[in-house]
Design brief:
Blueprint: H1 2-5, E1 10-12, E2 23-26, H2 35-51, E3 55-58, H3 92-95, E4 101-103, H4 119-132, H5 137-150, E5 157-162, H6 166-170, H7 181-195, E6 200-205, H8 208-218, E7 222-223, H9 232-235, H10 240-244, H11 253-268, E8 273-277, H12 280-289, E9 294-298
Parallel strand pairs: 2-3, 2-4, 5-6, 5-8, 6-7, 8-9
Antiparallel strand pairs: 1-4
Helix pairs in contact: 2-4, 2-12, 4-12, 5-11, 11-12
Length: 305
């Protein structure tokens, strides 16, 4: 417990195994960090591990994330492995019996979202993701099936990320203000005149009202992955993790929503172009993709400024 409560970087010894290896445990002390915020922090820490010639291993078991684990699963299940493989195939259990282990700092720079404006950092992120962050077999199959159902690989597709619900109701200080449905539609129409037509518009959103307004405008030209959506009224000023933990939803609901969210971001990375606000999912998709034909990022200021 002492090891787990110290959240600055330090060298630890958990046993006698693997004396010739140096491990780097990636952990996040912010249990309420969003799923894609966690993903981007892990990308950052993998880069730190590689710089130290260490083997990165991800701990979302003893450092749980509210979007991944139910309370009773903490300390029993590694939430990262619901969706992904360990970066280099080394289990957390093996690391916690090993001699040389760097315990990472429990956070990452606040400025990670700024990477969306830096082509060199984006390409570095992409190389890290390609080499070290792999979907597990079950999730990868689901992503591929959804892409095939929607016609990815056969049509030109504009990817659009719309953020609503808890962002709109909670208005978290210093977070980017996302556009509403009409602002998004107006910008899409403007960009189509500049970039040319796309056969389909893929919209990734957890917001029921945004989805409905976009669908009413674009009809069958708009496609989206299968997911349950919420309204800002349902979140009532709470973050989605607080809504998920309210006791109103059945066991497994949180996992299903995060799987759908991950699939939507993965599909954004399969699109030809991207239109999005500066949020965690945008940075993740850009890192997964490597290089879009075109990108437009909304800059509408931040809440509380």
């Amino acid at each position: 417990m002492l090891y787990h409560n110290i959240c600055h970087e330090y060298l630890a010894c958990f046993g006698k195994r693997n004396p010739e290896k140096l491990f780097y445990v990636i952990r996040c002390s912010k249990s309420d960090l969003g799923f894609m915020g966690l993903y981007n922090q892990i990308v950052y820490h993998i880069k730190q591990a590689i710089e130290k010639d260490a083997i990165p291993v991800i701990d979302c078991k003893y450092y749980p994330n509210d979007y991944l684990l139910e309370d009773e699963q903490v300390g029993k299940i590694n939430g990262w492995e619901f969706f992904f493989l360990q970066p280099m195939g080394i289990s957390l259990e093996e690391v916690y019996k090993s001699k040389n282990v760097i315990m990472s700092a429990g956070d990452a720079p606040e400025s990670l979202l700024g990477d969306v404006y830096d082509s060199l950092k984006l390409w570095e992120n992409h190389r890290i993701i390609e080499k070290y962050i792999h979907l597990n077999h079950s999730v990868e199959e689901k992503c591929i099936r959804e892409a095939e159902r929607l016609g990815f690989g056969k049509h030109s597709i504009m990817g659009v990320k719309c953020r609503g619900t808890d962002f709109v109701s909670a208005q978290p200080k210093w977070h980017s203000i996302p556009p509403d449905a009409q602002q998004t539609i107006d910008k899409i129409e403007e960009l189509i005149k500049k970039w040319g037509e796309y056969e389909f518009i893929f919209v990734a959103t957890e917001d029921e009202q945004l989805f409905g307004k976009m669908k009413a405008y674009y009809g069958n030209k708009m496609i989206s992955n299968k997911t349950e959506r919420l309204s800002a009224a349902e979140t009532k000023g709470k973050w989605l993790n607080e809504v998920f933990d309210s006791g109103e939803y059945p066991r497994g609901y949180k996992y299903d929503r995060m799987l759908e969210y991950l699939i939507s971001v993965w599909l954004l990375a399969q699109c030809d172009v991207l239109v999005a606000p500066v949020v965690g999912a945008t940075l993740t998709a850009m890192g997964m993709k490597g290089q879009y034909e075109h990108v437009y990022l909304f800059e509408l200021g931040c809440y509380g400024k």
